[in-house]
Amino acid sequence: MRKTITCYLIRHGRTRGNLEKRYIGRNIDEPLSSAGRRELLQLKKEYPHELQEVTRHHPTVVTSPMKRAIETADLLFPGADLIREPRIEEMDFGIFEGKNYQELSGDLRYQAWISSFCREKILEGESMEEFCRRSYLGFSSRVLEVAKADPSGNAPLIFLCHGGTIMAVLSRLTGEDYYSFQVGNGDGFCIEIGVNEDELTAISYHRLLFGVPS
């Protein structure tokens, strides 16, 4: 089985926690804010032509089962078939969940985590390696599932997920730095993936939008 699949990885819209710069991870299932909904509808008009075309054909969207992801999928791709994939939920921030930098600035455990470039395991949460492994497993299994079900390989696959998930998946797939794939809410990447048996290879990728508020 040798084919190429186009995948779009899109970050959900803004939530109240995003606006307040909080660590909103796997354990906080908050909805989009009103401002986040309005921004998404505006950003949708700015997506590249190829993605605009995809939205007209009721695509299959693999989405995190969290409210902010599902609500974003419904706004951007109304009528799409949604496949809920829990492995692409945001990172589990453990004891840091729901807090922001100011609230954690005096916590030595937080300072140690920041000093590790956020790679060490968080108490009651995940390490970056655990998170990347989980996210990539969810992503790759869905890509392979579609590749086997669609011999033509013509149908693009959309992943509606989280900022951390996008960084985890693309850094694992490309071998590039985790933080080089940071995107704002509603932004994301298009990536061409080569599929050979059970192996995925990154062929090329590009950002969907530029200058989007983070």
- What CATH calls the topology is Rossmann fold
Tell me, what is the CATH class? Alpha Beta
Number of structurally distinct domains: 1
Total strands: 6
Which percent bin holds the helix content? 25-40%
Strand order of the largest sheet: 3-2-4-1-5-6
Main beta-sheet annotation: 6 strands, mixed
Could you say which structural class the secondary elements and strand pairing correspond to? Answer: alpha/beta
Sum up the overall morphology in one term: globular
- CATH hierarchy: architecture: 3-Layer(aba) Sandwich
C-alpha Rg (nearest Å): 17 Å
Order of helices and strands: EHHHEHEHHHEHEE
Mean pLDDT: 92
CATH superfamily: Phosphoglycerate mutase-like
What do you see in this structure?
- This protein has 214 residues and is an alpha/beta fold.
- The chain has one domain: Rossmann fold (3-Layer(aba) Sandwich), CATH 3.40.50.1240.
- It is 36% helix and 19% strand.
- The chain contains 8 helices and 6 strands.
- A 6-stranded mixed beta sheet has the order 3-2-4-1-5-6.
- The longest helix has 22 residues, at 128-149.
Supply database-style keywords:
single chain, 214 residues, Rossmann fold, six-stranded mixed beta sheet, globular
